[in-house]
Amino acid sequence: MQRVIYAVGNAGASDGVTDGLIAASIFIFGGLMLSRSIFERLEYQAITCVRGTLVMALYAKVQKLGMDELEETASITLMTTDITGMQDGLAYLHSTWSSIIELGLGIYALYTFVEKRVDELATSLKERNCRVMNYGVYGFGAAMTPVAVLAGARFWTRVSNPMTISETFAAYAAVFIAALPLNNLFVLLPFFADGYSCLVRVQKFLLLPEMRDQRDCQGSRGMAVEKSDDTTVSAQTSGHDIEMNNVTVGSKASCPILQDISLRILKGSLTMVHGPVGSGKSYFLKVLLGELGIDSGTIQVASKHIAYASQSPWIQNTTVKDNVVGLHPFVESVYNEVIFACALDEDLAELPEGDQTMTGSNGCNLSGGQKQRLGLARTLFARTPIILLDDVLSALDAKTASLVFLRVFGPGGLLRRWNCTAIMTTNYFEYLNEADIVLEISGQGHVRTTKNHHRADRIRSAMPSSSREPAQTEAPTAETPREIVSFPFKRGKTESETNELDRKRSHGDLKLYGYFFNSTNVWLFVLWLSAASVAAVMERMPQIFLRIWMKTDLDNDWYFAGFAALSIVEILVTCASGSLYLKQVLPRSSAELHWRLLQTVMRSTLSFISHTDAGSLLNRFSQDISLITQRMPLALMTTASMFFNVLVDIGIISSGAKYTPPVMVFLLGILYAIQHYYLRTSRQLRYLELETTAPMITHFTETISGISHIRGLGWQRAFNAELALRLNNAQRPFYYLYCVQQWLTLALDFTTFVCAVTLISVATVFPESTSDSAIGLALLNLISFSTAASWFLRSWVALEISLGGLARIKAFCKHTPVEEDPEDAEPVPEDWPASGRIDYERVSANYTGPHGEVWQALDDASFSIDDGQKIGISGRTGGGKTSMLLSLLHMMEYRGKISIDGRDIKTVPRRILRSRITTLTQDGVELKGTIRANAFPYSIAAAAVAPADEDIVAALDRVGLWAHLQRHGGLDADITDARLSHGQRQLLFLARAVLHHQALRTRIVLVDEATSALDPQAEADAQALMAEAFADCTMLTISHRREGLDFVERVLEVDAGQLVELRPENLTETWSGDF
């Protein structure tokens, strides 16, 4: 640069010097272009490899952790936010060490011009390190360092030998070379630190202690020798599938979960386990499954290949058939037999697409009983030697439960014919007589064994003396794994695949900018844009003033004062612009956009939620929200600032030589073409990345929820392969997006290369076309132009790509069907409903499937319920009972009229309607947080009537939970630390309902199988509590047990959406038994 300015200032140079300068510019700028391209290619390959490695490592770790660790860790956050943050941190890591090298070279170049300036730079570094925490102060080093350098040279090191024009601009360029990586270093450090913190969290997760299977499996080699008195018998030859010796679980707790258990379970037997709520029935099954460690004793099993059906069914978002078959080879005869045994044949006949019906996320398209039978069907289809069932009949009506029990466990049932060993927990005492072994678990964790000797002898006599012959359809043991077919699961299309947005993804949408502007104060946004434009001009004013100074009077010190003053003004304007954006514009916009998305999800219809994949919704709150609240605002700020900087630089460079402006206009056209074609590709790749990431997240979440089933069936390897396939699909657009970014960098560097070579060639060949100060300013801004243009297009591209997330959110908010409340309805009185009378008049309701198919939920139902009356609702599972309650809550659209206290509920805003009704469901919502927050999560909406801690404790004590919770930390304890069983969770939700009723003085209570997981005594206590607590309320109670409806006055029986029978008031005398 110094040589070029010197050549121009001395009216040209020889042809050899001119050719050398042009060749040097080609070598320098061409080398920069190629080296940067190679560097970015290797960097992006490394990032992609690290991403894939971490995703697979996290998934593999999930499969090895116990359920407690999985519940306590935010593994989904690690998969989304932390891996994304670490990707950025890895990119900034390379930029950080490269900036250090550039900084050293820049300081050396500066030393050659100013000598003793090195010490001053070290001092300046400390000062900038203290001020860099603010965006405005970021420009302090870049603005004040040239002032300090020129001051040091003018008044100190070069007093006797003043710098020439060429040396002044060369020194200024050296300052820029040194300051740019220094500023980048400080700007990138927070991002690098954030990436490092993400990596620390990932590492902490990967170092968690893994679950250790403490069961001993001898398989066909025979189980360990057991001693019984003076007789030594082999457990394998004695016909036992499971043997436990002095097993204790949870001895480190204040009260052991299970204590000193010793038992043997015969091959082909049916063992039923019962006990009070929280006694440890589910833990007993998890110990046998290997999901819960033991503190002492030994467990021996004939096979670790065990099918398991949990109390809360694990349902994947795929078809009914794929949920049943899973990863096993499809055998039609076995499939039909299982469907019949689980009484699913009638349900499939009513579904519009039969067994090809999508179940929805967590089975939301199915009733509670259908989900339980679907989970049971998958367990049976596995045909493992041992199956574990956790109260799988609790959500079924009595008639269906009896039918399923007979077909599965009866004398001619599937398990008897297949000679499988089954262990089932239950609260149905009437089925205990059908069991071969009955285990009763006390509240202290002790197990008492009762054998049905007649059945046990029958089982032994049916077995060969050496060992049991394998059943015809028995699955191989874990030592000889069953063949696992490839993943058959078919995912339903997400709404993004059918949106009009996807057909326009290759084109930008200027309306998106308006959508973003509307999320904040428009005038505030315009004020910031004005400040950003002024800041860009002020950033270049010291350089422009330097040219005037050098051309007018080089020895005038007042020009130096003006130069320093302009640098100070630049800092102030930059501070004001950055502060206005970061403290005013950005927070308002981010909060508003997040609120719009949240409101749309919360107000979306039940049908939409049922048919939308959970991974898709989660992706919006992770990927899309991260884009529009973090990346997009910063990209917008950088784009606006760099846009104004580029405009100013173009003007300065064009003034460097007379023949340069046409070239600059041509290059601007090239830049526009580059960004135009680049954006068309990058937008589509960004959409593809988001869409291919959602199935990966869905697979991850479904694995966490069903990890016990996956490990029991030995599906880990197949699920790993499926994740690898989905990860591979997600990696393609991820890496291709980096590739086109690398192409963009190469194109921009080539543009700078052409611009630099053209400017230097024109200036050296035609020196009369410019001056030394003009070419010096042009070359100086050419260095900054390359950086500014690169940052401008990169940030613009990042902004356009981020707008893809905004476009998805805008389309989601626009196209998502939401619940609409009447706008002209009369105000709802504060005491409504005062009495609680309910009237249904010819109410019909339908469910609509994802492909437009329709099936009847309610069919012309009419009835009336007097205020304070207690009504029971019975009927076959899937018959429409829950739909009656959903329609009363206006959660599904219906025809006809539903009135409460004479007022049509369609004229009542849904928020008010639902807040005035106490609802108690089978599977309540357990929130992350403390016991206090879970007992009464309504404090924000009803802060004035929030119960005191004494009221919460009293409610928990009334349901029998407080003693247990007090041992685990009381109200301030985290809900996960309480280790609540399914039945204890139902008691917690009952306490929540009682508190809700007391706080809001509700007059209507809806109960949907709220005591299905309780033992008879606990259920009786819960029913008595509800009768007392809700004595003055109108109650509608759904129950599949007769005991659950003992306190009601009438029973409505629902079948296929029709009100079949209205039973008389005297329930006990008219109970027919088929219910």
TrEMBL record:
Keyword Transmembrane included in the entry's annotation: yes
Domain ABC transmembrane type-1 residues, every copy: 558-808
CDD domains registered for this protein in UniProt: ABC_6TM_ABCC_D2 (cd18580), ABCC_MRP_domain1 (cd03250)
One Pfam family hit: ABC_membrane
Membrane topology term: Multi-pass membrane protein
One cellular-component annotation, GO: plasma membrane
Gene3D superfamilies: ABC transporter type 1, transmembrane domain (1.20.1560.10), P-loop containing nucleotide triphosphate hydrolases (3.40.50.300)
Chain ranges passing through the membrane: 20-39, 135-157, 169-193, 512-538, 558-582, 634-653, 659-679, 735-762, 774-793
Keywords from the UniProt entry: ATP-binding, Cell membrane, Membrane, Nucleotide-binding, Transmembrane, Transmembrane helix, Transport
Disordered, as annotated region: 450-479
One Gene Ontology molecular-function label: ATP hydrolysis activity
Domain ABC transporter positions: 242-468, 838-1075
InterPro entries: AAA+_ATPase, ABC1_TM_dom, ABC1_TM_sf, ABC_transporter-like_ATP-bd, ABC_transporter-like_CS, ABC_transporter_C-like, ABCC_6TM_D2, P-loop_NTPase
Location in or out of the cell: Cell membrane
PANTHER family: ABC TRANSPORTER ATNG, ATP-BINDING CASSETTE SUB-FAMILY C
Name of protein: Canalicular multispecific organic anion transporter 2
Naturally occurring in which organism (per UniProt): Beauveria bassiana D1-5
